[in-house]
Amino acid sequence: MNRQDDLAAEGEPEKEFNPGIASRLPRKTTAGGALIRDEAGRILFLDPTYKPTLDIPGGMAEYDESPYDACCRELQEELGLELPVGDLLVVDWVPALGVWNDALAFVFDGGVLTPATIARLHIDPGEARGAEFLTLDQARPRLRPSLARRLTLALNALTAGHPLYADFGRQPAE
Q1: Which cofactors must be present for this protein to function (predicted)?
Q2: What does the alpha-carbon distance between residue 45 and residue 129 come to, in Å, rounded to a whole number?
Q3: Helix (H) or strand (E) holding 167
C-alpha cells in the first residue's frame, strides 16, 4: 500500500469536540538527517552556507512530509545523488532556542559510500560551501555540542542494533 491508500483506509478525519483546539496546539519542527560514512568509518559532514557550524546531510521536513522523506529529498538536493536511506538510529528532541521552535531531529543510517559513489557526489553550492569526511573527534570543534552528542548516540545505535531516543542529545537516564 502507499500513503494515499493508508490515508483512505483511516476514514473520515476525527472531528474536533472543542472547535478551534487543533489550531491552538503547539507545532514542532521536524528534521531528518543521514549518518553517511566512508569505508574508513569517517562521517560525511557538510559546511552549510546558512550557518557557521558543520552538519550532516539532511534538513527540515516540509508541511505534511515525513522525516524519512525529508531526509531522502535533502540528500538528493544537497549531494546530487539518490542514496539509499536505512534504518532509524536516533530520535532527538531539541528544545526551543532563540527564534527556533522545539523540534524532533531524526537521524537515519545513510550507509557506507564506496570511493566510486563519493566521486559522483555533487555538492549544491547553494546548500553547502563544501563537504568532507571526518571522524567525530575531528569534527567536534566545528559542531554544536548537541549535534556531537546526537551523532555519538547514532554511532552507538549502529553498534547496539536498535534506535535510541534522546533529549537534546542525551539519553533520559543520563
Answers
A1: Mg(2+)
A2: 11
A3: strand 164-167
Tell me, yes or no, whether 21 lies in a domain. no
Q: Cell numbers at residue 92, please?
A: 532527538
| Cell representation of residue 105 | 531531529
Residue 154 has pLDDT above 80, yes or no: yes
Q: For residue 135, give the CATH number of its domain.
A: 3.90.79.10
Residue 6 lies in a domain: no
What was the pLDDT predicted at 11?
76
Domain count, the chain: 1
**Pairwise CA distance, residues 112 & 118, whole Å:** 10
Q: Is residue 1 part of a domain?
A: no
3-state secondary structure 110-163: EEEECHHHHHHCCCCCCCEEEEEEECHHHHHHHCCHHHHHHHHHHHHHHHHCCC
Instruction: State the residue range of the domain holding 34.
Output: 29-167
